[in-house]
């Protein structure tokens, strides 16, 4: 057993209001500079929709992630050795039009225009060329367009639906959408790390955060192709690749990342997970529909004495183990089985999990009445306006049962609390719902409280980083790091004029 510590995340989609506050917080902190104008390390998409960059989920187009070849996992873009032989030819990169051309406005025209009969306007200007442009796309161009035949109908996840199911999704009186916030997943098996010819991308041993060494990066952009989530970007100004760093300077001081801290809906949870690295190859070898359960099997119980012994042996101290015991991610993913990975079939083993949203139910209109009556206990789950196959395509590699269980469990908690607070539910019906899911009333109450009433330190349980130990492993002379002024690379003072 090779016990590792991994910073992991849960986004509760039933609480996301699509306000983009997380995106703006990240933008202001990390990508508000030349060459990074088009980058959104955090973005919020509308589903169904094509997302950002356009159709990023279509790996027939982008060749990202892993696939099984001759019984072994291999990069879909081709092995790194082959890419080195053809290093200057990378045909599967997203183009700028797949993102969008960033722009600003010529605001001075609002103040400096001569007097006239027309109201002056600020025309858009490209932030790359500096020339006037026509805006044709943006990072959330299809925002809230859940029923749009132009955007939503091109969602790759709809390919698994029948023609009848697709027609139902886009009926004008039954349109539905939900929000999908995305950041780098900081995967256990990151394709970007495996694809980088220069070895600039690495996964930190102490917490599993995936970073890009800007000194080693040569801008070959193999990471952009290899990442199936398209969360590695190329800075056209510096000639380097960049990506979400999970605000590791904040984590090292016990603070939540900027997008987590600013989240209005409080949908974000952060905590440490322990996993068995020895199981990695066995996990990625299973079929798509078994990937969710196989990934859960990798996650270890921090209370298990054998796991604790293995963790201590690998340098994970008691304080970090205590934080893992309180991790909200462990509860959502392993204990309650409510949170699921995004597109596990890419086989990167993402460490960002999503609680799927409870959606409105299908209904029928007769004699001017909108009827949503259902005879069966869990029929609102089965009759959600987005077919279960769509949700399974997103979150479980096509395994409908994994999504069905997560949605039923949320619905049962909702019934339980209606009985407790409103009193309009039958106690026998609520008990039957809990029994079907083998869930106790205590567990239902815990799920409700962590979902609806969590305190700040319950949402974010950050293990101590012990960065000094990591630095000591890399550098024998710790005094080089002591007393730094925080201005990055500087020339030492010298004598003379």
Written description of the protein model:
The chain has helices at 21-30, 59-62, 80-85, 96-99, 108-112, 163-169, 191-195, 222-226, 248-251, 258-261, 280-284, 291-298, 305-313, 318-325, 328-335, 379-382, 388-395, 400-421, 427-436, 441-452, 456-459, 467-474; strands at 3-12, 43-47, 66-69, 72-75, 103-105, 124-126, 178-182, 201-203, 210-212, 232-235, 240-243, 268-276, 299-300, 340-341, 352-355, 364-366, 369-371, 460-461. It is α+β, with helices and mostly antiparallel strands. The protein has a domain at 265-461: Alpha-Beta Plaits (2-Layer Sandwich). The strands form 7 sheets. Strands 1, 12, 13, 14, 15 and 18 form a 6-stranded mixed β-sheet that branches. A two-stranded antiparallel ribbon has the order 2-7. Strand 3 and strand 4 form a beta hairpin. The protein is globular. The N and C termini lie far apart (60 Å).
Keywords:
497 residues, alpha+beta, Alpha-Beta Plaits, 6-stranded mixed β-sheet, 22 helices, 32% helix, 15% strand, globular
Fold blueprint:
Layout: E1 3-12, H1 21-30, E2 43-47, H2 59-62, E3 66-69, E4 72-75, H3 80-85, H4 96-99, E5 103-105, H5 108-112, E6 124-126, H6 163-169, E7 178-182, H7 191-195, E8 201-203, E9 210-212, H8 222-226, E10 232-235, E11 240-243, H9 248-251, H10 258-261, E12 268-276, H11 280-284, H12 291-298, E13 299-300, H13 305-313, H14 318-325, H15 328-335, E14 340-341, E15 352-355, E16 364-366, E17 369-371, H16 379-382, H17 388-395, H18 400-421, H19 427-436, H20 441-452, H21 456-459, E18 460-461, H22 467-474
Parallel strand pairs: 1-15, 12-18
Antiparallel strand pairs: 1-12, 2-7, 3-4, 5-6, 8-9, 10-11, 12-13, 14-15, 16-17
């Amino acid at each position: 057993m090779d016990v590792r510590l991994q910073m992991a995340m849960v986004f509760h989609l039933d609480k996301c209001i699509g306000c983009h506050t997380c995106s703006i917080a990240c933008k202001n902190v990390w990508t508000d500079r030349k060459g990074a104008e088009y980058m959104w390390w955090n973005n919020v998409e509308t589903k169904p929709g094509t997302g950002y960059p356009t159709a990023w989920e279509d790996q027939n187009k982008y060749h990202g992630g892993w696939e099984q070849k001759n019984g072994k996992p291999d990069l879909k873009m081709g092995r790194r050795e082959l890419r080195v032989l053809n290093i200057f030819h990378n045909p599967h990169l997203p183009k700028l039009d797949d993102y969008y051309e960033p722009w600003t406005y010529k605001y001075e025209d609002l103040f400096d225009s001569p007097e006239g009969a027309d109201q002056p306007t600020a025309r858009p200007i490209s932030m790359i060329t500096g020339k006037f442009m026509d805006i044709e796309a943006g990072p959330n161009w299809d925002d809230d367009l859940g029923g749009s035949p132009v955007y939503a109908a091109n969602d790759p996840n709809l390919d698994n639906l029948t023609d009848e199911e697709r027609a139902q999704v886009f009926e004008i009186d039954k349109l539905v959408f939900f929000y999908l916030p995305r950041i780098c997943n900081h995967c256990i098996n990151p394709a970007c790390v495996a694809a980088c010819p220069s070895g600039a991308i690495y996964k930190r041993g102490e917490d599993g955060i995936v970073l890009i060494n800007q000194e080693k990066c040569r801008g070959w952009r193999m990471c952009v192709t290899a990442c199936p989530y398209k969360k590695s970007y190329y800075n056209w100004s510096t000639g380097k690749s960049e990506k979400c760093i999970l605000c590791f300077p904040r984590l090292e001081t016990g603070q939540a990342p900027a997008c987590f801290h600013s989240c209005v809906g409080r949908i974000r949870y952060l905590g440490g997970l322990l996993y068995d690295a020895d199981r990695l190859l066995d996990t990625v070898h299973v079929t798509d529909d078994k990937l969710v359960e196989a990934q859960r099997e990798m996650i270890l119980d921090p209370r298990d004495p054998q796991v604790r012994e293995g963790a201590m042996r690998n340098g994970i101290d008691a304080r970090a183990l205590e934080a893992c015991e309180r991790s909200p991610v462990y509860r959502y993913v392993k204990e309650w089985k409510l949170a699921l990975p995004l597109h596990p079939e890419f086989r990167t083993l993402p460490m960002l999990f999503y609680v799927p949203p409870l959606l409105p139910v299908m209904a029928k209109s007769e004699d001017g009445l909108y009827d949503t009556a259902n005879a069966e206990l869990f029929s609102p789950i089965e009759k959600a306006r987005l077919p279960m196959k769509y949700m399974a395509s997103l979150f479980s590699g096509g395994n409908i049962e994994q999504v069905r269980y997560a949605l039923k469990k949320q619905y049962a908690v909702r019934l339980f609390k209606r009985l407790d607070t409103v009193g309009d539910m039958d106690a026998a019906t609520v008990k039957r719902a809990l029994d079907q899911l083998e869930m106790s009333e205590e567990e239902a109450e815990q799920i409700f409280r962590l979902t609806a009433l969590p305190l700040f330190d319950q949402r974010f349980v950050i293990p101590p980083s012990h960065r000094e130990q990591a630095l000591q492993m890399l550098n024998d002379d710790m005094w080089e790091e002591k007393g730094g002024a925080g201005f990055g690379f500087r020339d030492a003072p010298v004598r003379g004029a």
